[in-house]
């Protein structure tokens, strides 16, 4: 996955992670006129920096395509290789590993639901899902696939 904090929900609001700045913020060596405009209306200076609607839409479309989990994607700990299933020691180790992954998913869900963890729960706070072991198809921001996934 992309350094993601980078799930599509987060990146979909481009001020969180703009991919391009059309102009610089007037914080270093501004002209007197730039500085005056910045002090009077800082939000306009910020809006001038943001990508155009077309640029932002293009980036979101590309991220959408690259971030989708396919319906047949396989995740670590879900299925043991058929060749190893007949080996009792390996099969037992796989079952322990898979169980620990399910336990980890439960821990992540419990922490996301804990109202005392302000970084995990509350208004405007996205639940942590990046290393939840399993995922359903689509853009989820979770799952640890066997293959490389952006």
Automatic annotation (TrEMBL):
Residue ranges occupied by any Lipoxygenase domain in the UniProt entry: 1-150
One of the protein's GO biological processes: lipid oxidation
Keyword Metal-binding among record annotations: yes
Gene3D superfamilies: Lipoxygenase-1, Domain 5
GO MF terms, alphabetically ordered: metal ion binding; oxidoreductase activity, acting on single donors with incorporation of molecular oxygen, incorporation of two atoms of oxygen
PANTHER family: LIPOXYGENASE (PTHR11771)
Descriptive protein name: Lipoxygenase
Organism this protein belongs to: Solanum tuberosum
Lineage: Eukaryota, Viridiplantae, Streptophyta, Embryophyta, Tracheophyta
């Amino acid at each position: 996955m992309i350094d993601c904090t980078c799930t599509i929900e987060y990146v979909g609001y481009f001020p969180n992670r703009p991919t391009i700045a059309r102009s610089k913020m007037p914080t270093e060596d501004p002209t007197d006129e730039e500085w005056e405009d910045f002090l009077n209306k800082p939000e306009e200076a910020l809006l001038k920096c943001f990508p155009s609607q077309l640029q932002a839409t293009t980036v979101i479309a590309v991220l959408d395509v690259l971030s989708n989990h396919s319906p047949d994607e396989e995740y670590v700990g879900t299925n043991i290789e058929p060749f190893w299933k007949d080996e009792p020691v390996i099969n037992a180790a796989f079952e322990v590993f898979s169980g620990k992954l399910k336990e980890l998913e439960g821990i992540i869900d419990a922490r996301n639901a804990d109202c005392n963890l302000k970084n995990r729960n509350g208004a405007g706070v996205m639940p942590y899902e990046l290393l939840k072991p399993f995922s359903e198809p689509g853009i989820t921001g979770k799952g640890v696939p066997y293959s490389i996934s952006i």
